[in-house]
Design brief:
Elements lengths: L2 H13 L2 E6 L5 E4 L2 E2 L3 H10 L7 H22 L8 H13 L6 H8 L3 H11 L6 H14 L9 H12 L4 H16 L2
Antiparallel strand pairs: 1-2, 2-3
């Protein structure tokens, strides 16, 4: 399966779908699969893709695909060998870029450009969730594991405690337990 199919599936799972706009945790008007309507970039992509309104899974998917195409253009300027990365790493990097272009900053770009997957995974896992939100921790765990062959990078007990504290902030007890189980599974693969 081409990485873009995996990316599309991953983004749909992580972002969820809404056919009506809502305010995200930062107060941005959001719709579809996490499209920030307050972003000038989203408005530009919508105009280029001929999308006036996101009110169905089909238009949301069209917008997501157009945004991914634009994010891929940006990521290639930061990670010149992007095309040579393994499919899982491309998926993780574009997921981060889709979530926020700031997440593919100088440090992570440098680590990826150096081929340092283990440190890139640590950067994703431990330093790409500034607000330490539990739901974001879940996503970062999966992205980090994509960089290191389905496992998490080696972390200290203190770093594991930090992740567990973030997971405890997930309000839904069933989801919280599911994320704890996934953390244990990914750590057991080390």
């Amino acid at each position: 399966m081409p990485y873009k199919d995996d990316l599309k599936k991953f983004l749909m799972e992580q972002e969820g779908f809404s056919d009506t706009s809502y305010l995200d945790h930062k107060g941005n008007e959001t719709v579809g699969y996490g499209a920030n309507l307050d972003s000038p970039g989203t408005k530009t992509v919508m105009a280029k893709a001929g999308i006036d309104k996101v009110d169905s899974p089909e238009t949301a998917t069209k917008l997501m695909e157009a945004q991914v195409k634009e994010k891929e253009r940006i990521i290639k300027s930061r990670i010149p060998q992007f095309d040579t990365l393994p499919a899982e790493q491309k998926t993780a990097a574009l997921s981060l870029m889709y979530n926020s272009p700031k997440l593919i900053g100088p440090r992570l770009s440098e680590l990826i450009n150096q081929g340092n997957s283990e440190e890139a995974a640590k950067e994703i896992l431990l330093r790409s969730n500034k607000e330490q939100m539990g739901g974001v921790t879940k996503r970062r765990m999966e992205e980090a594991a994509m960089f290191t062959g389905g496992k998490l990078p080696a972390i200290t007990p203190e770093e594991q405690d930090l992740l567990e504290t973030q997971i405890k902030s997930i309000e839904n007890p069933h989801e919280r337990e599911r994320v704890f189980l996934r953390l244990r599974q990914l750590l057991a693969n080390n």
